[in-house]
Amino acid sequence: MLTITTQDYTIPDPELSVLGRSQCNSLKQNLVPKITGPNPELEVGLIIVSPMRRTIETALLAFGDLGIPFEAHAGWQENSTQPCDTGSPIPSLKSEFPQVNFDHVDPVYPDKTSPSGKKYFNTKQAIMARGQEVLRDLKQRKEKAIIVVSHSGFLRAGVTGRWYMNADYRVFDIADQDEGNVKIQEREWTAKEGGLGWSFEERVELGDGLVDEIEEPVLD
């Protein structure tokens, strides 16, 4: 699931817009009844968030009252290196969002342009490898169900091959590995246009639209 803030891509790690906050309320009204009560459809034991402000705010606004722990994970960040998709230093986020556990965030975050941040490069190879890495991480966790609050580009091209409009969500089961790759299967009740019905139904191939290599700047 995701929530988008603004079309100004030059704003570093932006907060949610007023519209984004309204969309979070729609997400809350739709999904929270399915994960609470005596017979929940999903027994959620953990909420994993990309360490970017808009995803953290989305998670807290939609699920902050549930008493479920929040954990930040750099593997779920967005693909591009534009300012809007580049995170903030973890120390500042810790003071801003004390409800979230940042202890296990990769120390290289938010770097994704230097050799140290190579695993987060905006390339097809790096993004698809990162998609498999986060799925393997989910597979080995003990919780019966986990909510992940991430970003449309990474979820579509690197993990699920499905579209996600603002604040919409999809539900997947993790299957056994096939030839070394972790496979997922979407549940029927979100398998068309998402849980809120806001997303495109069409599927895309993993890696679609991603570049093979980072283009080096041309120096005069």
UniProtKB/TrEMBL annotation:
Q: Which InterPro entries match?
A: His_Pase_superF_clade-1, His_PPase_superfam, PGM_Phosphatase
Q: Which domain of life is it from?
A: Eukaryota
Q: Name one Pfam family in it.
A: His_Phos_1
Q: Which SUPFAM superfamilies match?
A: Phosphoglycerate mutase-like
Identify this protein by name.
Phosphoglycerate mutase
